[in-house]
Amino acid sequence: MGYKTTDGLMRHLRANGINISGSTQKRQLINSGYYHGYKGYRYFNDSQTRLPFTSFKEIYATIQYDSALKALLYSKMMYIETAMKNIALDSILVKANSERIQDMFDKVISSYRNAPSNLNDDQKRKLQQKKLDLQKKIHSEISREYSKGNRKITHFYNNTNQNDVPLWALFEILNMGDFGNLLSCLSYDVRDYISKKLGINLSCDTNRQLIFTYIFLLKDLRNAIAHNAVIFDTRFRTMKPSNAMTQCLKLEIGLPYVNFKTIGDYFILMCYYLKLLHLPKNEIKAFIREFEKITTEYLNSVGKNVSSIVIHPDLQSRLTALKKFI
Description:
The chain has 16 helices and no strands. It is mainly alpha-helical. The radius of gyration is 23 Å and the shape is globular. The N and C termini lie far apart (56 Å).
């Protein structure tokens, strides 16, 4: 099978019911790519839900909407990741009373030795295995960064006055997934300490798991943004949210339901975190206004057959509840 030129791809699209013509749309097709663009955006969430596009104008508007979402969310996601790491780091330093990584493992990470007394042997062994896996992962990350010449790591091994990498340097190299995994390995009392410091609604979080399950949820979105993957339909989601994860936002913000099947729910979670992190209200409200603006622009750029699938009908009422909460 031979490859198709751009003109050939345009003819192929027209043959499949997509109105495309002219030098402007040809350039848009070239820049967005047939495979990354049309093939990547022609469905919503899964290949069974094809978007009923009739023109390349609608396809390009969808690509632009997705790009605008990524541009809007990126800086706030970095803010949340950085702030959460700093809060967790400060809490671990206080509870371990040390900046040594080994002291963190010995004093604040769950293991067989410090497991709650109500756990059985099998549950205690699982905690111990999780601790060992975490140690292996962290040492592997440090080794990898040392081999790459990362000065945040090499400084502590190539300096005769230093003995080991301190906790703060470790947190500098942890990706969001590894950070969430570390949080999940902390003992209950340390997770409780961080949760209270953050201000999470603990009535929904008996086991103090929200501090890491929310991070895992946001990690999927963060990675999709970083790798320029599609985000508008949440196809990046890899985990099913727990009852605690949905109930917390329902109670705090006053929503009838939360399921993280739309980008709106992820946006709401990010705003929830921004409030917990005490970002000024005017900044959060400006963030919401920009989300509303780019969504309205998208609604005005595509037909109702497309917009009714992409934009959930109750999005505006959910954003109204969010603004009251902020």
